[in-house]
Amino acid sequence: MSIEVIKIGGSVLSRPKDYELIIDKIKQELANNERLVLVVSATKNTTDDLIRALYDRKNASHLVNLIYKRTLELLSKVSTGDVFEKAFSEVSELATQMERIAWSLAVLDTITPRISDYFLSFGERISSVIMWSALKSAGLRVAKVRDVPLITDKNYGNASINEESSAKKLRQLVTMDDKVMIVPGFIGISEDGDYTTLGRGGSDYSATIIGKLLGVKTIKMITDVPGLLSGDPRIFKDAHTIPQLSFEEAAALSTFGAKKFHPKTFDPLIGSEINVNIEGLYDNAYTVVNSSIRDPPLKGVALTKRLFNIRVNRSDVTLSKLTRELNTMFGSFLGSTVNVITDELKGVENPSNVIGVAVVGYGISKKRIYSEIIKIASDYELFSIVRNSDFISTFIIPEKEAFDFALQIHDKVISWIR
């Protein structure tokens, strides 16, 4: 049976036009596949509002009401007739459950990790209802998965997936008569039936682990940009779509903010023959991510401004272990991935005045390529150069010079991509 996993990002889940484009894309994919598993994120801004409600507890009910009103407005424009009525009823029930938690947040002013995950799960669960109603109203044979198929432990906020149990549930899903199965991303469920979350950006990870467990050939991630870009287009006006990069290169580029992937997104696929196509909903360009390491030798440039000195006094703590622990503690709070770039910013009295310019690509470990980058760097005042891995080097540079340096490096990267 031909199965494809498609993940729909929250950045393209906000307008009726978005859903029209998604429906067209789903119809095209069904022409080439017997089954589609659609992994959906929460609609745009919903997860941010839910997280805000957890901390701004006096306004939690107000934020829940905003989500509900926004959902109903969107639902009324993407669905019709009996489908709308059924979706309206389900969304209203979910909103009632959210409101109960919001009320308790305001009254008790406290929350447990289990309830926090339960509260955050509503974003993807509501989004699944909206997507089901849109596809069903368009005449597609679609089912919304009621039982979350990813079975996890109870490490709330950063749950680990039990692959064996999850694979069994997923195999049951794809034997259903419906052509399209909608699965909420980001969330799992424990053996005891408690909702859990996989960490911020977990919908990407949901898609890749589902793709691995179902043995698919292709996973498609639909977003608001045409694939992975060589740099932030707000900084690099000539940023290009990267045609292909390896899982390791994609993970490295993501770590420094080129695109916010969950830290484990590509882990299930390393060494596999699965292709991940990152596609823009509004553009034709896309990036293929797979196990192959190919040209161009450098793929992208990313900047990180939030640098902190952290001293570790134990000799048995590796950088990889420290990175994982910091992500567990601070990743969700910061809303981004924590990356350890060096054990000390030597000579830097105030880390807030420096920027890390990361250069990503397998070529950074090649003498000829690296020497060309160093030649550019020699014209600038650098505090340090950190070789994070075979795929990334970070240049720690004063903020006043960082953007000009980054532009020069990006021009070099573009010369290889073109």
Question: Could you describe the 3D structure shown?
Answer:
Strand 6 and strand 7 form a beta hairpin. The chain is globular. It has 418 residues and is an alpha/beta fold. It starts with a strand and ends with a helix. It is built from twelve helices and 15 strands. The longest helix is centred in the first third of the chain and has 28 residues, at 81-108. Helix 4 (81-108) runs antiparallel to helix 6 (122-137). 42% of the residues lie in helices and 18% in strands. Mean pLDDT is 88; it is low at 331-338 and 343-350. It has two domains: 3-224, Carbamate kinase (3-Layer(aba) Sandwich), CATH 3.40.1160; 300-417, ACT domain (Alpha-Beta Plaits, 2-Layer Sandwich), CATH 3.30.70. It has helices at 16-30, 46-55, 60-78, 81-108, 113-120, 122-137, 163-173, 202-214, 247-255, 319-334, 367-377, 399-417; strands spanning 3-8, 35-40, 142-144, 151-152, 180-184, 187-190, 195-197, 218-223, 244-246, 275-280, 286-290, 300-304, 354-360, 384-389, 392-398.
Topology:
Layout: E1 3-8, H1 16-30, E2 35-40, H2 46-55, H3 60-78, H4 81-108, H5 113-120, H6 122-137, E3 142-144, E4 151-152, H7 163-173, E5 180-184, E6 187-190, E7 195-197, H8 202-214, E8 218-223, E9 244-246, H9 247-255, E10 275-280, E11 286-290, E12 300-304, H10 319-334, E13 354-360, H11 367-377, E14 384-389, E15 392-398, H12 399-417
Parallel strand pairs: 1-2, 1-8, 2-5, 3-5, 4-6, 8-10, 9-11
Antiparallel strand pairs: 6-7, 10-11, 12-13, 13-15, 14-15
Helix pairs in contact: 2-3, 3-4, 3-6, 4-6, 7-8
